[in-house]
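Most newcomers find our protein records easier to grasp once they have seen one. Sequence and backbone structure share a record, each on its own labelled line. To make this concrete, we reproduce a full record directly below:
***
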Amino acid sequence: MSRGHLLIVDDETAILSTLRKALTLEGYGVDVAGGFAVAQKKLAVGAYDLALFDVALPDGNGVALLERLRAAGNELPVVMMSGEATIDLAVRATRLGAIDFLEKPVSTDRLLLVIENTLRLVRAEAEAKELRSRAGIIGELVGRSPVMLALQQQIARAARSQATVILRGERGTGKELVARAVHEASSRAAGPLEKVNCAAVPGELIESELFGHEAGAFTGATKQRRGKFERASGGTLFLDEVGDMPLAMQAKLLRVLQEREIERVGGTETLPVDVRVVAATNRDLEEACRKGEFRADLYDRLNVLPLFLPPLRARREDIPLLARHFLALAVSANDRRGMTLADEAVEALTAYSFPGNVRELRNLIERLVILTPDERIDRQDVAACLGGLGAAGPSGSLYRPGVPFRVLVEECERRILDEALRHHEGQMTATARALDLERSHLYKKARALGLRGASKPDDDEG
């Protein structure tokens, strides 16, 4: 496999032959050009990783070639060579972005070192750019858990397409953030991102909100108004809570998705729309279709690229990372710089199920930043904000109004297993024996609840 594809531009045949042989032996792919015009043609069609330009060419100047390259927006790394190097030439070439300026006769060892270092730097910069791009894709969707890494990959794949995306998940899992990430990583990023909360717009107004209206279309419509589809032209339209859209409106949305054209309310003109739709819902749309509450044909049209956003309890290992991320945001917003989260506070947060998901965690951290009098947030501060220690509510009650029974039971199970495992120093066999459970069942339960510090089923065999 080639270490890189190089172009050498020089009018001396002997130098071209020598350099080509030396660089080929080092594993590089090498192309050559004997003059300005030939080099221009090769640069226009070839994909090179680095080029070497001689300054003096029979039909031009190597520095002028570099200048022409940069004027065309080509950032190809270039090393200049000259037998009559001057300070002025070197300065001019450097200002144009030349990597180095080598005097002839060129030392092969020096040249190899320059090429190797340059290509290593270019690749490192490309990798860093890719990492920044990935970070940008997930935005505030902070997390390193397997489910979040998988979601990140799915977002990247979805962004590369033009297909309709539907985001599924509980409230507070970050569906709007994912919609923004898909938009910003797509070819439509330069276009607008428009948002509509289908549950928040009254049924009689949602058609106007989406498609716009003409003046006089209804009482209060005093002038023409463009709808979200028109405003999102060339970009993305995010339809949040699409499962709550009225049935009559669902039929009209389906037609727009099929025909890619709209009519304003009260209008007769058909307007083409170039919009990528990302929808989101926390409803079970399959069940809604069975009940006749959601059109099956619209569901099929929306469900081209489904992305599932996991609840926070399914990625507990991300809670410490998220908590510290939200802490940094909250201390800046509330002028409480210097505040820290104690490890025991992070443990208390990790043990909680967060039925409101990431949104609840963010709100809780901000509440802690505002209400905690000291600079250190500890377990007691977390417990006070949660209404008691661990799963307990006020006055030690296990019941908290509004929290589902399954969540309360899960929290109690987590506390019991966590304390038992701590007592038995993470030993599964001893813990299972003390709780009168099958060890394999205990291990599966501990994993499902996101408990750490537990040895695998066969780790403590003796």
